[in-house]
């Protein structure tokens, strides 16, 4: 399998180069990422449990999907690609906000990302790629908040970091299914 390169960026998301994905996470370098949150018409969030064989955070619950744009790929195209690859869904995505974080992972890797967050609305059930995710569920924002308070170890670090912005942001996102 060929090495996957990601886009290195500065704190303003300006490209500064490219590097192999695992090396970037080993060195903790800032790179571009995409995150997708899919809601259904009942305002519930589609979560995935990462496949246990993932190189980091396997078996943890997270947002609908995430990933990295390839060099020369737009963030929207990357988000749509990852949604298809991980969840088997093809949806129209809306860019909602951007954020940056630097989070250590349990296996010595670091998620130092400039993230582009997208929302979508769908009542479709996903068709999981078993190499990416092994379970899914829809949960209300309140249920996710409760579960994060009582069992944060069940969730990925970036989801714990990003999710608190979702309830207020979702309130301004127009719901159409």
UniProtKB/TrEMBL annotation:
Cofactor: record remark: Binds 1 Mg(2+) ion per subunit. The magnesium ion binds only when substrate is bound. Binds 1 Mn(2+) ion per subunit.
GO terms assigned for molecular function: isopentenyl-diphosphate delta-isomerase activity
Matching Gene3D superfamilies: Nucleoside Triphosphate Pyrophosphohydrolase
Main localization (coarse): cytoplasm
Pathway: Isoprenoid biosynthesis; dimethylallyl diphosphate biosynthesis; dimethylallyl diphosphate from isopentenyl diphosphate: step 1/1
Assigned protein family: Belongs to the IPP isomerase type 1 family.
NCBIfam families referenced in this protein's UniProt entry, alphabetically: IPP_isom_1, PRK03759.1
Annotated protein name in UniProt: Isopentenyl-diphosphate Delta-isomerase
Species, as recorded: Pantoea eucrina
Recorded name of the encoding gene: idi
């Amino acid at each position: 399998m060929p090495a996957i390169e990601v886009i290195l960026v500065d704190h303003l998301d300006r490209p500064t180069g490219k590097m192999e994905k695992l090396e970037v996470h080993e060195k903790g370098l800032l790179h571009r990422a995409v995150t997708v949150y899919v809601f259904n018409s009942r305002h519930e969030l589609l979560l995935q449990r990462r496949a246990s064989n993932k190189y980091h955070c396997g078996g943890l619950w997270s947002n609908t999907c995430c990933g990295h744009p390839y060099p020369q790929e737009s963030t929207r195209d990357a988000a749509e690609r990852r949604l298809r690859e991980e969840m088997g869904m093809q949806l129209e995505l809306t860019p909602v906000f951007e954020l940056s974080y630097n989070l250590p992972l349990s296996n010595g890797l670091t998620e130092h990302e400039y993230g582009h967050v997208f929302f979508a609305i769908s009542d479709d059930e996903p068709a999981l790629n078993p190499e990416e995710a092994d379970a899914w569920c829809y949960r209300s924002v309140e249920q996710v908040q409760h579960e994060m308070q009582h069992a944060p170890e069940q969730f990925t670090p970036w989801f714990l970091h990003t999710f608190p912005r979702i309830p207020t942001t979702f309130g301004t996102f127009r719901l159409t299914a």
